[in-house]
Specification:
With 147 residues, the protein is of the alpha+beta class. Helix content is 27%, strand content 32%.
């Protein structure tokens, strides 16, 4: 999925596709090694098959800046990446609603989603799960939901 431009085109400061299995394996290992009581990166599958359809995440996001390493922003982001075969059928909205409920049940009082202003599909998922536009500027649209 992450080797497809249609999936990656809105991900990261400089979008790029994964080009090798080793790159994919390194990402999986990095994600598996992260332990946090609330944050996570989950695989999303269908109940009627063994196949995966996408991923969903809940993580701390850094503040914007020109120097590295970026400092924490204090915001927790929800996000999703799905294979195009499963776009438009509700999987992202359903999975995101579950993760958003998890976030608030675990004590978070605010969750944001950061999207490209042109990523209308992802913004529709945001509004379906109750996020509203907080601001737009530069390369990002930020949507937010408070408990």
């Amino acid at each position: 999925m992450y080797s497809r431009w249609d999936v990656q085109s809105f991900i990261g400061r400089v979008p790029r596709v994964m080009e090798s299995r080793s790159e994919s394996a390194a990402l999986i290992e990095r994600l598996r090694s992260q332990e946090h009581p609330v944050h996570g990166f989950w695989a999303v599958g269908r109940k009627d098959t063994d196949g995966l359809v996408g991923t969903i995440l809940l993580k701390s996001i850094p503040a914007s800046g020109k120097t590295s390493p970026l400092q924490p922003s204090g915001d927790i982001e929800i996000g999703w990446h799905f294979h195009p075969d499963f776009w438009g059928v509700g999987y992202a909205s359903e999975a995101a609603a579950v993760v958003l409920d998890h976030a608030f049940t675990c004590g978070l009082n605010k969750v944001v989603a950061v999207t490209s202003p042109e990523n209308y599909t992802s913004q529709k998922v945001c509004t379906r799960i109750g996020l509203t536009h907080r601001r737009e500027g530069g390369n990002n649209a930020v949507l937010q939901r408070n408990l």
